[in-house]
Design goal:
- The chain is about 15% helix and about 40% strand.
- With about 230 residues, it is α+β, with helices and mostly antiparallel strands.
- The chain has one domain: Jelly Rolls (Sandwich).
- A hairpin with a 7-residue loop joins strand 5 and strand 6.
- The radius of gyration is 21 Å and the shape is globular.
């Protein structure tokens, strides 16, 4: 008859995979954007002047519009590129973004806390560079005065001709908080600069709490993005 020690070891071997699977299922993502669902919304007053100016200059306004409506991914408040389907998409529906930014208001607002570590995964292709940039704001608790600490790039990735899945981790850089405390989590946005074309899909981020992200096939080196197999 097996000893009690042996029986306990066998029990642990069975229960450990179940515990890991439960942890993955219960993980709380800050966001998990697959860009599958898009909606038509009324063009906001703040968008009209800039849109007319760009059209008059013969420039692309960066989003689709139909009469008084514009199309955006569900969960975003302002324009966030154009919907891509078919062979050009990564899986199902993707986002195409040219010069501009996406997600600063509401979607990626108040997400990132100093001295915490975050893991990311994103599928990209295109020309130029992909940036995920933070807006870091501080306040003097004695006077109420505020200041911008800075706008650091949390993620910078070179775009390639074929779809490539990038994985890595990041933290907010350290700032001098002796006077202006970062008491509100920093906002961020996808930023695509001039002469850049970016196709984006499956962008997700979660906080790393003393563990390697288990949805990645291998441990993530801190602050160093890695690239896995390209996909056409």
């Amino acid at each position: 008859m097996p000893s009690l020690t042996h029986q306990f070891f066998v029990f642990c071997c069975y229960i450990a995979p179940l515990s890991i699977a439960a942890s993955d299922a219960e993980r709380e993502y800050l966001f998990n954007d697959q860009f599958e669902d898009w909606e038509w919304s009324p063009i906001l007053n703040g968008m009209k002047a800039e849109g007319r100016k760009r059209l008059a200059e013969g420039k692309d306004i960066g989003y689709e519009y139909r009469g008084p409506l514009f199309r955006k991914p569900v969960g975003f408040e302002l324009p966030a590129g154009k919907m891509v389907v078919g062979a050009a998409a990564y899986a199902g529906t993707s986002m195409f973004l040219t010069e501009g930014q996406a997600g600063l208001h509401s979607r990626y607002s108040r997400k990132f806390v100093p001295r915490k570590k975050y893991a990311y995964e994103v599928a990209l292709k295109g020309k130029g560079e992909f940036h995920f940039r933070a807006w870091v704001w501080g306040q003097n608790p004695d006077t109420g005065a505020t200041k911008w600490h800075g706008f650091p790039n949390l993620i910078t990735l070179k775009l390639t001709e074929d779809w490539t899945v990038h994985k890595g981790s990041f933290s907010l850089p350290e700032f001098d908080e002796s006077t202006f405390l970062i008491s509100t989590p920093a906002a961020a946005a996808i930023v695509i600069e001039k002469d850049t074309q970016a196709y984006i899909d499956d962008f997700r981020v979660f906080e790393v709490k003393g563990e390697s992200p288990s949805f990645f096939p291998s441990p993530i080196p801190p602050l160093t993005p890695s690239t896995v197999q390209p996909q056409k």
